[in-house]
Amino acid sequence: MPDHSPLVQSLRTAVAGAPDDVPLRLHLAELLIAGGHHDEAVAEAAVALQHAPGDPQARELMARAMGVPPQAPEMSAQAPEVPPQAPEVPPQAPEGPPSPAGFNWKAAEDQVGDVVPPRFVETPKAAEAPQTADGADVPGDASAWEVEAPHGVRLADVGGMQDVKDRLEAAFLAPLRNPELRKLYGKSLRGGLLLYGPPGCGKTLIARAVAGELGANFLSISINDVLDMWMGNSERNMHEVFETARRQAPCVLFLDELDALGAKRSRTAHSGMRNTVNQLLTELDGIDAGANEGVFVLAATNVPWDVDNALRRPGRLDRTILVLPPDAPAREAILRYHLRDRPVANIDLRKLTKATDGLSGADLAHLCEAAAERALLDSARTGTVRMIGMQDLTEAAATISPSSDPWFASARNVAMFANEGGMYDDLVTYLKKKRKL
Ligand SMILES: Nc1ncnc2c1ncn2[C@@H]1O[C@H](COP(=O)(O)OP(=O)(O)O)[C@@H](O)[C@H]1O
Ligand SMILES: [Mg+2]
Description:
49% of the residues lie in helices and 7% in strands. The protein has 437 residues and is an alpha/beta fold. The protein has a 6-stranded mixed beta sheet with strand order 1-3-4-5-2-6, with helices on both faces. The chain starts with 5 loop residues before the first helix and ends with a helix. The site of adenosine-5'-diphosphate has 23 residues, from helix 9, helix 14 and helix 16.
């Protein structure tokens, strides 16, 4: 039996003594969800629904226990999102009397135990981080750039993607980690790194992991937001961003959606924008004067071909890493993460991983939500609660097409016609391997 809080234990006793008390049971279910015991919460919500089939709170709790987001059809619109939380709990049988909802928990548990013995023993800590750390959340006050203290997200938390990790290590981390190498490399260490690739494939996560590896603070700025906010003031504020990073050194400064700012100067009619680009160049070059000691600049874009070439010159964002859709180990890590708090049974992760080739991290999150919703609606329809099964996932997978397809369509043109100086050789290699070129 899991280590429940004393409150949960007393509530259990109370519920056992008053099995018809719906509010009491819902209270218990609420606490179980908060404690990450989603399977048990499903059982309690199911009993509550038996007693009060139309009860909106019971339905809402059931949805949350199943991990269906609040905007799902038929669900109460105000249902708060379940926060990502709670370390994984080892597999356990929900205790207490057999569920009157007609679902044999013991049998299900035994069955699950055989097929997927370790029901997710470890959770990639990292996977939850980007949601909270995306530069998109920068507040609307230029003086309030939020710098995150060093955190625990490491490259090991990024599933799969060994190529990317090796390149990061060689091109960026190894020389920085080692003070001797640092001296030896001297000037050549000045520049930053540009991550590019289709959306939702881990660029932000990797930037955070780099900060974790360096034990550095992390300042994430989404250029798109920032441009809106900066109207007319962008140069001074661009300077402020760098100053903030310098004060917080060692600090990884992550410039997301770089293309928004660096849009090729030739194409930028808006002269205000051009000044901002120039300011960024000045700030990057500040590294020369030692001003940027301890400031590591990482940038990301989905459209590197729109990034001003001046930004990619030596000493600036002179190293480039292509971040592709998650490979099999990465997909497995992502799926594991998104299923961690959901009531699942008989999930063959390897098979699922195979069936989801080409899907991005974001697509995989969506897939897990869609599967949970299917199981939930099915449970509501039949009146019998069931876990999220393999079929829910494979059928949901069949309906989701890779969101990076359109990206590859543009990338293909660039690889064919605009691979100046071999800038996109990695992309060419990948497209050829995937027979897309
Ligand atoms: N290799 C990976 N391992 C674990 N999670 C990943 C991986 N790649 C992507 N993700 C997850 O997928 C989602 C989208 O990734 P994100 O870094 O935001 O993509 P991008 O910045 O490229 O648009 C995030 O929740 C992220 O944690
Ligand atoms: Mg991102």
